[in-house]
Design brief:
Helix content: 55-70%
Mean pLDDT: 80
Radius of gyration: 36 Å
Number of strands: 14
């Protein structure tokens, strides 16, 4: 799946999004309930404060006793001290509740976000090779790291604020209805109109959110390419090109954000304008009620204050609904990731591969990376146990594809690959790959120690096994010169080690794995002669008593192979030993040998 083509079709299917989020919320339901429950008194306290204005003006200022209900009448002497004390108490209670509410919301958001990230990363590491081929590193980072944050870190906060704003508005509306229900109906109807624009910007929110993810992914990719390709950037003077590319991406992101701001930004002045109309109508109507003696001064002051304060939660409510729509778009994209099903799967009742007894066969194998553009065309050959098979041929002919099909990095389009007469698709993936060790042209080393990288071949290896692997891979020839030896820290991709040293660490890792099938893909092609000679000795130790597939340019490896396969434009054109192929008149291997290897024979 190409991630940048994500449509987030379920963005506004709130029932669907809630059903997908619920498994992450369920274990935390009690805390979620407490967090949201605390939002209710937080919102209502503002209404209580405005309500206090009525008795303050009517009783304390004007001296009119307030008959709350039969048997309870409040006088100036009681309220003159009670109201200031109540205000302070309300502030203390509100502050404490706000702190607890904020802490719980942040804790819940982080917890949910982290759980989703962990589950997504589990999916990420199990994706097919084709997934990594189709998507840039930046897009993957944006979708797997940034979207979960947007979708989950803010969802509880948005719900909390939404509920606070709603209850605050509800509390103030209750005060309005109590102090003057006629005026309240007018004010509420006018303010209700303010929510109409929200429905008009949903599509734009989705469009901007999706577009920002694509551009954001491009920016991260640009950073990654500049970092990893820094020598090429410097050597070819590409600094300005990379800078202008980045500058263009930032401008695109800015323009996209501003296009949303232009549409969302006018909501505030419109709501302010609508509110001012409502307040003007209320003031005009309220004045007539006071003059007619149908409303007290305190009631009117309380009403106007509540109406003015109501503008803020209504405005915030609109903003939180807008934010929540953005959260829903991000959540929809997250669940799209969960719904990606890797093509390479274990079959039901798959078998366990326990070593190799007979050999490996390619049976009329066809394969294509891009539909209708075949890379392998009916390739058939047999490799027996403990044979070494060399693959040679023109660049792009399909050699690497052949060895990548054996551990099922990809699945064949048609035909089959069998181990001991069983289709590899009938074996469990884990057991298939457990029986295969690979050494590539550029082996990736992870940040950590040299020991950590070697142990990736077998995590429970004994110290004796580690020392044996180090010796056979000739790693001991350089780690003894390092201050911390095998426990020397290396950074990402083995920065600080030479190419030959990295290859030997990778070979030690493969030796420790002790798999019966070895794949060597141009394992020495990028090395100088001295490093190549050392690495070649290490490879010979790795290859002993193994079934080996080797793609190499070194003559001795190819000449000594039990079988040589000549691959040209996806076809197996020749097969045999070095001597057999050299005896084919006008043969392709003979031509390759004469062209590529004669010079090496002369030099040696």
């Amino acid at each position: 799946m190409k991630l940048e083509l994500a449509t987030a079709d379920t963005s506004f299917d709130y029932k669907f999004i809630l059903s997908r989020l619920y498994p992450y919320i369920k274990p935390l339901l009690f805390r979620v309930f407490i967090t949201l429950a605390l939002s209710i008194p937080l919102g209502l306290l503002d209404g209580a404060m405005t309500f206090a204005i009525k008795p303050y003006i009517d009783v304390v200022v004007n001296g009119n006793p307030w008959k709350v209900y039969e048997g309870l009448t409040l006088t100036r002497d009681v309220l003159v001290n009670a109201i200031p004390f109540a205000i302070v108490m309300f502030a203390i209670i509100q502050g404490a509740l706000r702190y607890i509410n904020t802490y719980l919301a942040e804790w819940l958001s982080s917890k949910i976000s982290n759980t989703i990230k962990i589950d997504l990363f589990e999916r990420f590491v199990k994706m097919d090779s084709s997934f990594y081929d189709e998507n840039s590193s930046g897009m993957i980072i944006a979708r797997f790291l940034y979207d979960p944050d947007t979708a989950s870190r803010t969802v509880i906060e948005s719900l909390k604020r939404l509920l606070t704003c709603a209850t605050e508005a509800l509390g103030l509306i209750c005060v309005l209805l109590y102090t003057g229900w006629r005026l309240a109906i007018v004010g509420i109807l006018v303010l209700g109109v303010a929510f109409i624009p929200l429905a008009l910007i949903r599509k734009k929110i989705k469009e901007v959110s999706n577009g920002s993810t694509v551009i954001g992914g491009g920016i991260v990719t640009n950073f990654n390419e500049t970092y990893h390709g820094n020598k090429i950037v410097t050597a070819y003077g590409l600094q300005d090109k990379m800078f202008h590319k980045f500058e263009g991406q930032v401008r695109q992101q800015f323009d996209l954000a501003m296009s949303l701001t232009k549409r969302v930004g006018w909501m505030s002045p419109i709501m302010y304008f609508i509110a001012s109309i409502g307040i003007a109508i209320v003031m005009f109507y309220g004045n007539s009620l006071i003059i007619a003696g149908k409303m007290t001064t305190g009631s009117f002051a309380s009403f106007v204050t509540s109406l003015l304060l109501l503008y803020k939660p209504v405005k915030d409510l609109g903003g939180q609904l807008t934010n929540l729509q953005g959260v829903c778009v991000a959540a929809s994209r997250v669940f799209e990731l969960f719904d990606i099903i890797p093509e390479i799967q274990n079959k039901e009742n798959a078998k366990e591969l326990k070593g190799i007894e007979k050999g490996i066969s390619f049976n009329n194998v066809c394969f294509e990376y891009v539909k209708d553009d075949p890379v392998l065309k009916g390739v058939t050959f047999n490799v027996y146990k403990n044979q070494t098979v060399a693959l040679v041929g023109n660049s792009g002919g399909g050699k690497s594809t052949i060895v990548n099909l054996i551990p099922r990095f990809y699945d064949v389009k048609s035909g089959s690959i069998t181990i001991d007469d069983v289709d590899i698709r009938d074996y469990k993936l884990e057991s298939l790959r457990y029986n295969i060790a690979e050494v590539f042209q550029d082996n990736f080393l992870f940040s950590g120690t040299i020991r950590d990288n070697i142990l990736m071949g077998k995590f429970n290896a004994t110290e004796e096994e580690i020392e044996n692997a180090i010796k056979l891979a000739h790693v001991d020839e350089f780690i003894n010169s390092l201050e911390n030896g095998i426990d020397t820290q290396i950074s990402e991709n083995g920065t600080g080690l030479s190419g030959g040293q990295k290859q030997r660490v990778a070979i030690a890792r493969a030796i420790l794995k002790n798999a019966p099938i070895i794949i060597l893909d141009e394992a020495t092609s990028a090395l100088d002669n001295v490093s190549e000679a050392i690495v070649q000795r290490a490879l010979e130790n790795l290859m002993k008593n193994k079934t080996v597939f080797v793609i190499a340019h070194r003559l001795s490896t190819i000449k000594n192979a039990d079988k040589i396969l000549v691959i040209n434009e996806g076809h197996l054109v020749e097969e045999g030993s070095h001597n057999e192929l050299m005896n084919i008149e006008n043969g392709q291997y003979k031509a390759l040998y004469d062209m590529q290897f004669r010079k090496e024979d002369i030099e040696n």
